[in-house]
Amino acid sequence: MQIIEQPHTIIETGIVAGIGFFDGVHSGHRSLISNIISTAQSRDMSSAVITFRNHPREVLHSDYCPQLINTFEEKINNLSETGLDYCIVLDFTVEMSQMSAFEFIEFLIDNYSLKCLFIGYDHRFGHNRSEGFDDYAKYGKILGIDVLQAKMYMPGEKHINVSSSVIRKLINEGNVSEAALLLNHPYALQGYVISGYQIGRKIGFPTANIAINNLHKIIPANGVYAVRIIVNRKYHYNGMVNIGNRPTVHSDGEICIEAHLFDFSGNLYEQYIKIQFIARLRSEKKMNGLKELTDQLQKDKEHAMNILLNSSISY
Ligand SMILES: Cc1cc2nc3c(=O)[nH]c(=O)nc-3n(C[C@H](O)[C@H](O)[C@H](O)COP(=O)(O)O)c2cc1C
Ligand SMILES: Nc1ncnc2c1ncn2[C@@H]1O[C@H](COP(=O)(O)OP(=O)(O)O)[C@@H](O)[C@H]1O
Fold first, then answer.
1. What pLDDT shows up at residue 240?
2. Which of 40-44, 64-68, 106-110, 149-153 has the lowest average pLDDT?
3. Mean pLDDT across the stretch 158-170?
4. 35 lines ligand 2 (CB under 6 A)
5. What ipTM, to 2 d.p.?
6. CB 131, CB 61: distance < 8 Å
7. Residue 158 — pLDDT band, cuts 50, 70, 90?
8. Long-range contacts of 28-32 (CB under 8 A, 24+ apart)
9. How far apart (Å, rounded) are the C-alpha atoms in residues 286 and 280?
10. Is residue 266 in contact with ligand 2, taking CB distance under 6 Å?
């Protein structure tokens, strides 16, 4: 997948594109993307998505800090797995927010060789988002391109509407296993290992404390999780993670994210680790001392191993 960040890019074949923020690149997004790819193939054109580097609401409201599933880099990585030819990245600006839907479609045609635009079933764009699909289709006719409506994607018997906001809520509540099903991959946090209070090693459960390097990432609800851990983008481990303020040993209220890797010993300080959340095990509890905490951690380890060995969620 080629990333296009500059306007005035001529793509000889013309492009069939979808437009959106694509937070999470979830199974609904992937269904839209496979429609884009097959339509592009049938028309001998290239496939693309048009997305934004920054969240549009952040530009319009400067004090708004959106909580998101993906960093920009994670989104690009996920999109590049889908088989798309191009990802067109726009920097959303105040001027762009003033464009009408007609002007915006015209801008895409003039700058990126747009020939066919897929629009999500509920997606709206253009100043004040006042128009709907029928208007976009009409503008497409005037401007000489096809505007097609993507169907709503509702997998399985549950008839859950897969959307980024549903998945964000699930992650927030700690329901990471349901989030992974809708995403088609586990939710992940990444960052460098920093030092903690060095109690973990004394109780037989050393924990790598992670500093998350992005303000926008959703932190799952406090609690204990079965996870997969990737060290330095290369070495994979099963493990468990605690998110919380460790009421048994500290009461400073600061939330920390700490991972215990199974079958690992060594030094992880300053290493880069990625945590993939597979399932929630329990809430964080205040124990009566370190012995009770250690016994509980042993049980958590067995519980986590059981889940991880039987999990069908892919990496
Ligand atoms: C899987 C897991 C579950 C944990 N559960 C709790 C808990 O329920 N209550 C609590 O106070 N601390 C809990 N902890 C945090 C421990 O108190 C913490 O790992 C220990 O104090 C070591 O901290 P350190 O890395 O700063 O040395 C848990 C840690 C892990 C890895
Ligand atoms: N199995 C393991 N899981 C997590 N960290 C481990 C493991 N084995 C060794 N370590 C190392 O031990 C450190 C954690 O030990 P701990 O006593 O909890 O110290 P800290 O309070 O600094 O996190 C980790 O940052 C890592 O360098």
1. 98
2. 149-153
3. 86
4. no
5. 0.90
6. no
7. low
8. 28/152, 28/153, 28/162, 28/163, 30/82, 30/184, 31/150, 31/153, 32/118, 32/120, 32/150, 32/153
9. 18
10. yes
Q: Is the pLDDT of residue 63 over 90?
A: no
Average pLDDT across the chain, whole number: 93
Nearest ligand 2 atom to alpha carbon 209: 23
| Phi and psi angles of residue 269, each rounded to the nearest 5 degrees, phi first | -55, 135
- Measured from the Cβ of residue 283, the count of other Cβ atoms closer than 10 Å reads 11
Q: What is the DSSP string of 50-99?
A: EEESS-HHHHHSTT----BS--HHHHHHHHHTTT-SEEEEE---HHHHHS
**Domains within the chain, CATH numbers bracketed:** 2-149 (3.40.50.620), 187-310 (2.40.30.30)
Q: Is the CB of 223 under 6 A from ligand 2?
A: no
- Among residues 215, 196, 222, 211, the alpha carbon closest in space to that of 275 is found at 211
pTM exceeds 0.80: yes
* Distance, CA of 267 to chain centre: 29
Tell me how far the alpha carbon of residue 186 lies from the centroid of ligand 1, in angstroms.
Answer: 23
Q: Which residues pair with 217 in a beta bridge?
A: 68
Atom of ligand 1 lying closest to residue 304 CA: 1
Query: Does residue 261 have its Cβ closer than 6 Å to ligand 1?
Result: no
What's the mean pLDDT in 105-117?
Answer: 96
- pLDDT of 185 > 90? The answer is yes
